[in-house]
Amino acid sequence: MKALILSGGKGTRLRPLTYSGAKQLVPVANKPILWYGIEALVAAGITDIGIVVSPETGGEVKAATGDGERFGAQITYVLQAKPAGLAHAVQVAQPFLAESPFVMYLGDNLVQDSLTPMVETFKERHLDALTLLSPVPNPQSFGVAEVDAAGRILRLEEKPQQPASNLALVGVYLFASSIHAVIATLHPSARGELEITDAIQELINQHYRVEAIHLQGWWLDTGKKDDLLEANRIILDTYSNCSIEGTVDEQSRVIGRVSIGERTQVRNCTIRGPVIIGNDCQLENCFVGPYSSIGNQVTLTDVDLDHSVILQGARVENIHHRIVDSLVGRRASLKSAPRHPNAMRFMVGDDCQIELTSP
Fold this sequence. Notes:
The protein is an alpha/beta fold. It contains 8 helices and 30 strands. It has 2 domains: about 1-235, Spore Coat Polysaccharide Biosynthesis Protein SpsA, Chain A; about 240-335, 3 Solenoid (UDP N-Acetylglucosamine Acyltransferase, domain 1). It has helices at about 35-45, 60-65, 85-90, 95, 115-125, 180-185, 195-205, 225-240; strands at about 1-5, 25-30, 30, 50-55, 75-80, 100-105, 110, 130-135, 145, 155-160, 165-175, 210-215, 220, 245, 245-250, 255, 260, 265, 270, 275, 280-285, 285-290, 290-295, 300, 305, 310, 315, 325, 325-330, 335. The longest helix has 15 residues, at about 225-240. The chain starts with a strand and ends in a 24-residue tail after the last strand. The relative contact order is 0.12.
């Protein structure tokens, strides 16, 4: 069995971060989202992995992820020249997939459940497709399944205005090679894309063996800031540990599960976990509260923050308000302006979001 990870989306919901980088490389607990999917596939025994990339960010994804050696996998990169839908991604990857059954995994998704039982179910029942379902509060934003009393899928619809259920298709699918012939017959949807929901629906119409199972654990689509922060919270809550490789002075307090990377210096700070701090950081006179991830080469001075993600190379200095629920991009700079007049000064890029409290 092979795997196909889709990593070619533009990430419009995470702008401005994704103007300069791939959304699948945005870190959760200081590890790119994409890597969690690779690790989950390898843990299920699938090591022949194709990653679908775009011309804009493919080079960055390849440079960061490599040939798969670090994961115990072999990675092949597949170029999707334009974002023409999930089924189109399968179509352009057909030379890599050949006649192998495969797992298709959306690269910006995180799934708690092990993939092993899903793979075993797919093989044991000799299925043509296995979809994963999870109830969501906003089914209009997803592919939605209508199921019968026995749980069999009757109908699928992509982002319906009036959903038939609250059961969304999770971003993990298992397919036999029969999917290729079906995709070859598809026409673009109203969105101008080849929809994977249409392909699965056609399998159902042609009486192929299509089944669905319900996820037991959490599933996170990290396409927006709040989703990313929630993913960061859950990952830190679930997997964080205590590891201090940097230098912490005697005036500092480190409480709970806190990971501090190599060559990081912590001076006169309180850090209350779960927190992860990368390598080569400088923290001074700070409070870092739970569910915060600090990337490599970050400088924090005279700052209080919690439930936030600070990416590599950012500098946050002399901020007199507590920072919460925030996502700060790579090499960004936040600092107070001591000069008069008593005013705020901004240089704000496209699609940024800034919230200020009243004085």
